[in-house]
Amino acid sequence: MTIIGAVCFALAFLSAVGLLVEDAHDRVAVAAAESARQLALSLEREVSRNIDLIDLSIQATADGVEQPVVMALPRVLREQLLFSRAAAARYIRNISVFDRDGRLIADSLSTLPSTQGRSGGAPFIPVTPQPAPAGDALFIGQPYLASDSTTRLVRFSRNRRTPQGIFSGVVTATVNLNDFSEVFYSLNVMPGTMVRLSTRNGVALLRDFTPPSAQTARESGSPGLTGRMLIALAMIFSKPADASLVAERPVPGTPLILSVQLSSQTVFADWRRWAIQLEAYSLFVSSLFLAGALYLTHVLRMRMRSEAVVTRLASIDSLTQLPNRRALDSTYSREVMRAARECRPLSVLFVDIDHFKTYNDQYGHVAGDHTLQAVADAVRACLRRDTDFVARYGGEEFVAILPDTAAREATALADVIRLAVRDLRRPHASVEAGVVTASIGVASYDRATDRATGSLLERADRALYAAKRTGRDRVTLCPTPAVEVFREPADLTA
């Protein structure tokens, strides 16, 4: 039970530690989710501010094109006036103005004639007139590569309308996405963080963005084999932290969605180290506790064995190896109570070696001890049932207790014992038979007459003395005393 209790305690302790680690994981996850939301909010505001600058540049250009006075100016002055706002938005590569038929009428970088259908290396996109008021929102096209095959570009555009609301063309702003990604460098981004800016239909403008410093830190901080083994140890009793944390925010006024994805490797790095330490300490403490429990169990078992040996030695006669008087008294009281409770017969044999004092005087005490041992072995050999009990009463006397044995069976067994003692053929000159003999007194239990536990043993002792008086080497049965039989009280309701 000690080992089972120790194991249960250790498992309960480790379970409590596991719950503590899981609770700490949940708290870190909640804090990280809030950080992801705050970072997404900050990035969304930064992106929204820069897109507003781009949109203002487009609207300012569209408003200038619709003014005849501006369009009548020389080309250099006209373009300076039309594209003055574009200089404030450093991510705009160029702004182009198309008429309702898709012809280029102005470009912030191009010196081509107005009939040319290309702008800044970008593919010409035919413009289809849009009925008012549909199509008045800021439109963001598909990203594409410039002629250098490394620069990623995207077009922002708005419809042009006359003061009367008639569609008159399109103004587009070509934005360099490589430069636009610098928007995210102004913020303190956690290493391993992924930022994605995409349209609502899933087209990514900026994808899997990670600041170079964060990427370097993530690669340099990747765990080796030992680290992975410790992490695996931490995961035995703790909640796994392999799910990244994602926060999304729409960019107001645009069809864009900003997504921030935190790296679980970075978010849970401190928690993982703490969990490894805590669980290592917990396993160490549990191991010490189990080792202590094992040692304590071993000590208790050794003590129980020692006590059992001491108890056995205290209840065994050292000469004959039979139970002693102390064990006899305990067994006798128990069997008498059981016989009275269950109304079963019980018999007692009182065995005494004839003229044993004379035997010791003639042959010496060493020979007497050997004879006692031989007689004890003979009596024990005659008792065949496990429930039969024999003990050394004292000196040369032995007592046998026979549960579930009536007077006739007990007398027959006593005669077998008497003959077994004679068959030892140990010389005894003071006895008529010439060998060691024994006298035996027999008494049987009767529930109607034996009310006291001591009466059965006393009657067997009296029967023994009767056998000695009548010549020894014989068996004598003590008659049941004539007493009034106990009767149950009459049923008063009869």
UniProtKB/TrEMBL annotation:
Entries under InterPro entries matching the protein: Diguanylate_Cyclase, GGDEF_dom, Nucleotide_cyclase, Rev_trsase/Diguanyl_cyclase
Entry EC number(s): 2.7.7.65
Domain GGDEF stretches: 344-480
Keyword Nuclease: no
GO molecular function: diguanylate cyclase activity
Domain of life: Bacteria
Residues that span the membrane, as ranges: 274-296
Keywords: Membrane, Nucleotidyltransferase, Transferase, Transmembrane, Transmembrane helix
Catalytic activity: 2 GTP = 3',3'-c-di-GMP + 2 diphosphate
Record-given protein name: diguanylate cyclase
Organism: Robbsia betulipollinis
